[in-house]
Amino acid sequence: MSIKINLYDFFAYTVPGSLYLIATFYFCLIFGVLNLDWQLIRETIKDQSLLLIILSYLAGFTFDPISRYWYRRFAPLGLEKIMFDVFRVAHPDINVKFTPSDWNILHAFIRRQNIEEYSEIEKFNANKVMLRNTSFSLLLMSILTLLRGVMTSFYIWDFAVAVLLLCLSLITGNQAAKFDKWFFLAIYETMAAYGIEASDFVPGKITSPKRGSTKK
Question: Which residues constitute the domain of residue 78?
């Protein structure tokens, strides 16, 4: 059995996956499971870079289902219907037969019709996945930083870093929701464009004037 991983999926999970690994390492440091050894860290990054990339991808892929619960704060359930209503309001004169529940079939249809258009739409989805997991990983690091402060003497520095991480988490979560909206809207608009002819916008036959026919 062959396993295919496209480039978008790879980066969508690997980038935040590296943050999950950092959060895990941070967790182990707080509870004394590991000791901080910069020389060992540098050697591991240098000699085991490929292994770290694979582990980052697996970490991102593993934590992704959990990150969806945090993501609901930014994008409510039924976003495909919300964006379908936005599409209908923006294009009231375009009649379509598909419904919001058909979005996955429409997505597959676009892939079969034009792989370049599909790739452009898939970028939105990949960015959403990457930012959704980045937001959740930053949230975890914010909680761990607060936990570290409670377990020590709770320096103001710990609180400031935790607040900064939380703000970054909220910003990336909102950005993920923006790409999610663009993803659904792009599907609906692309499918609507497939069924549109030039005559739908410009009635009648259009002919270019012949040269020299302009009256003086």
Answer: 7-195
Would 203 be classed as within a structural domain? no
**Within-domain flag for 215:** no
Report if residue 206 sits inside a domain. no
Domain count, the chain: 1
**Considering the chain, what percentage of its residues have pLDDT values greater than 90?**
56
Please state, for a pLDDT cut of 70, what percent of the chain lies above it.
81
Mean pLDDT of 57-72: 94
Picking from 68, 76, 177, 82, the residue whose alpha carbon sits closest to that of residue 127 is 177
